[in-house]
Amino acid sequence: MQKKHYLSPIFAPRHIAVVGASDSPDSVGHLIFSNLLTSKLQIGRGDIKLSPVNLKHKIVAGINTVAHLRELEEMPDMVIIVTPAESYQVILKECHELGINHVMMIKINSDDDGEERQLTKAAIRQANQLGIRILGTTLFGLICPHTGINACTYTGHVKAGNVAVVGHSSSLCSAILDWSHEHYVGFSMAVSFNSHNSNIALGEILDYLVHDSRTDAIILLIHQTDNGRRLMSALKEAARSKPVLVLKIGRAEELRNNNQQSTMHVADLILPSEVFNHALNRTGALSMSCLNQVFDAVQILAAKYRVQGNRLAIVSNGVGLGMVSADVASDKNIVLAEFSGKTVQALSQALPEVEAGNPLDLLGNAGSLRFRTAVKICIDDHNIDAVMVLFAPQGDDRSEHLKIAEMMVQLQKESSKPILLVWVGEEKVSSGRRLFSQNNCIQFHQPRSALEVFANMAQFNQNQKRLMTIPSYKTRQLNPNIALAKQIIEEARETMQYVLPEYLSKKLLACFNVECNYTALAHDKEEAVEIANSIGYPIALKVDSPHILHKSNIGGVRLNISNEEELRDAYDQISERTMVIAPHAMINGMSVQNMLPTYHIREVKISMVQDDTFGPVITFAAGGDAAIQKDRSIALPPLRKEIIDTMIAQTKISQTFDYYKNMQPINRDALYKVMFGVSELAAELPEVSELKIDYYYRHKVQLHQMCE
Question: To the nearest 5 percent, what fractions of the chain are helix, strand and coil?
Fold first, then answer.
């Protein structure tokens, strides 16, 4: 017998007590208890016991109530609290005394009341001390159609199915359930909760759903991500066994509230949603960007469609439809499948009036049999991963239009490959669309939506393959000098240097085997001359100040100084300019570094910044003036060669890394070494909040240009 999950008392209880159950028609207590009772009766679950608890009402829905939980003859598996927040702690204390360890708290109003938030937080702290697991506070609640549990404020009908929806938004959960009713889609569970007012983590709910035999796929609607690493670990485990699709809520809010304290240029700033999406790809889950994609995903997951690649065949009854779709497919990097010789031959023999190409135009007079023949031949082609069928009503034979839809439904039932059905129009195609909904077929109103869905399905397949790949890397890549690195950090702390000067930054990088050009700090002009004479001209001169982070912005950098006279002039000019533009800045001196040849080079930027949720994030990007184009990719450490290769390939500048114009390929091993070094630094030194290095790369040699 399978062992019960520790969250079963919440998601599959046998006995529920509702504190605050009421006969008052406008109360949340009335809505919750009536939904529980109705759902129990509809599904015929007579073994589920419901116990109303109310201080004032003696009977609720014809059932005798008790004033307190302790008066119940049998203790419930779960208690649902539908009372004001000031009662939470008293009820939780009683639950603890009675050995009740699972509670759900449902808000009785939608007002964002500060006092209520404080009372709720106090209740959560108390629950943590007492060992009570709380799911709350939520305006939506919980519904599990298979088991007859409807502890939910949503009043529409919800069909039992195989998709679970878990979210931080009550309104989105309600919208998805309302949409699904018209599209004949069912759910194994729908639950909304506030992660700040729960001590049950999203990862724990994922773990429950992984073990739930009724759930075949999971959709997450996430707003808060307090412990990103723990969530990603849970997502990875879930995605190994079931499809997981995620919509991150609040990207516009992130843009408004971006970290204004960052020392990086605006073009370098990374939004939390960027980091989140990258982390998702590492788990095998798939990110969604809008509610329409969620609706499409619900259909796909309910129908259990999967793709094995990104090769698509387009079949239409009009050349214009096919050409428009091919254009959109090209924009989205979707591969139009090349028909096999067998397919071309079969099409030529069966449909001589049709030219065997992709898109495949069946002509405006195509009937149901021509559609079926063409789509069946495409489905059977091993070079094709999915077929998109475009139909626009031409003529008034509606019975034939419906027959075409019926043929597609039949073919989809026979095939494991997805058939994306795009019925373009409105009134004349309504019967076909209704048929598709009734049979869980993927349908769309226009080609772009279908192509976006297919691109996401292909990306999901790629994420799954990446998840199953065994990494080939060692934990420690470069044997860094951790002791010296920590010493540098500690000395900087003692002297209150929270922004390391360039010469110290390069010394720190050297501890992780990141090679840099020679840099020394000159405290005055004469020392600068002495250093320059020792290392040789040409040299670069830069102002050194913890208050001036972007030196070039104030004219604090001079390059290619070729002699002592130029050096003295540059020193004076930088000093004078700095005093005018930044009179209050503390100046340590000038950093002096040797200039290295920059012919046949490619300039890249490698950065590291701390994300509040996921910790260190590493960025690989185009350097120099190209940086404003945001040609970049990100990854979470630890890095391995496969991840670095993916990061590089995702940027446009990587197209210049091999033979380019008259330049030789760059030294990729040197680039790997720097990336591994930054990865090791991020892992070993959590004190480092930001790091940015610009590198010049050319054949066999990597030349360090700047570090901040």
Answer: 45, 20, 35
